[in-house]
Structures are given as structure tokens and as C-alpha cells.
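Anyone have C-alpha cells for Xylose isomerase? Sequence:
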Amino acid sequence: MNLANPIGIMVDSLRLNLRDGLAKAKELGADGVQIYAVEGEMDPENLSPRDRKELKSYIESLGLRISALCGDLAGHGFQDAKVNSAKIEKSKRILDLAVDLGTQIVTTHIGIVPNQVNDPVYDTMQRACEELGVYAKSLDAYFAIETGPEKSAHLKQFLNSLSTNGVSVNFDPANMVMVTGDDPVQGVHNLKDYIVHTHVKDGIRLREVDPREVYGALGYEPMSHDRIAEDAASGASYRELALGEGHVDFDNYFKALQDIGYTGYLTIEREVGDQPEADIAKAIDFIRRYR
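Reply: yep, here.
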């Protein structure tokens, strides 16, 4: 196998301030970075046009590109019609920021897609994603749904119901392995028309778990990144592990990405562990073995 995909790092996984994290990503040998852009200094409201130009220039001065922004607003995703208007507006502003910074991809969680298409929540999510997809398409960009909350075949059915591919996929194989028990290799082939970004992460499933308890759903506790990270570190249902130590079949997963012609980023995300820099350095070495 001869992977030629650029390697990215989720800057927030390094647990440094933004500028130091960007410099460290370059030092570690990344080609690009993904950055959370929901709150704090990366909230679109806090970045003037001048700030955006300066940040873009700094990233380019390091020889890096932005693989994607993360615009995940957590909670119940887009399941709750009462809050969707504000969430959709915020998502659009994050996408505007992404385009200003030189990327066309914003990754996000939309909430778990209900199994029944006649479920009112399905319709609510479909309406939100249709609006987001049309807006993204107008900018030649994408909102990329992260895999994991539902099986790939069902997610494909949902995406096929939208009028554009402006809502596409950020493929995370570990989420599938850890939560739904889905096969990432088959998932790549199922979602081949929609994959625009990927995460490189590994993990194991310790027992069957209701995805609604992990990712949140109306009537369940809202999704929290802190809680997911805590469960991934020491939970009873699943664990995130270093690359090659979990149940993601990377030989066949990377081959599947090659088979469908995916040439985008392989972005390392590390949500657990007390030595993120060392873990990410090892992850880069792991990926390079396939080059």
C-alpha cells in the first residue's frame, strides 16, 4: 500500500493554546490541522476580517493548511426544532469562517438519525440538514457529519434524501467500532460518494451500548464532549486506544479509502491519555508506515 493522503492533526488534541498547538503540529510533521471553531478565540463572532487574514497567514507561514474546522455544537444536534434556527445560523457562520481561512469543510455531529423516516425528529433533522447543505453548496463547501451515532447504511439513506451533497461525511472508523459495532471497511464503500474528511483513531467496544446514551437524543442526556472523552478513557462500554491497539482494521480501512479514490486528509484525533504529543507523534509514524 502506498498512501499519499496528507496527514492532519486535531490541534485541540494537543491541549495547547492555539498558536503553540499550530507550531507543535508543524514540528510533529503534519501537513494540515483541524481546529475547533465554536467558542473562545475561534468563535466566528470573535474573529474580525483582519483577524482571519492574520490567522490564515500565520498558518500558511508554518507550511500548514487547515484540513477542516470542527463546528460541533453538541447538545441534541439538530433534533430539537426549538433551537435549530440558532444552531443553523451559528453553523453557517462557522462555515463562512472556514472559507475565509482556506478550507471548505466543517465537521459536525447532527444527532442520531431516527430509524423511522416518519419519525417527526427525522423530519426536523432533514429540514435542518437540507438548509445547511444548500448553504454549503452555495459556497462550494461541505458540512461533514461524523460517523458513529448510526450505522453507515442508514446514514447513507438519510444523506440520499437531501437535495445536494453539501452535507457529507467526516469518516471516523473508531466511533463506528466503539459504539455501533459497524464495519468501517464496509462503511467506506457505503458512504463513498460523501466522504470529504476523515479522522484517524482507534478503539474497542467492550459491550453493546445504546448510541443514544453516548451521542444524546431527545429524552436522553445531551451529548457532551467531556463525557464522551471520559467514557473513552475509562468507560465500561468502549475505550479509545492508540492506533493499532484497537479493533479498527487499518490495513483494509486504508485500502478501502484508496479503492474509492479518497485523496483528502487523514486527521489524527486523540481524545484521551495524558501524553497527547507522544501519542500523536506515534500516530503519525503509524500512518507513515503505509506510505
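The chain has a mean pLDDT of 96.
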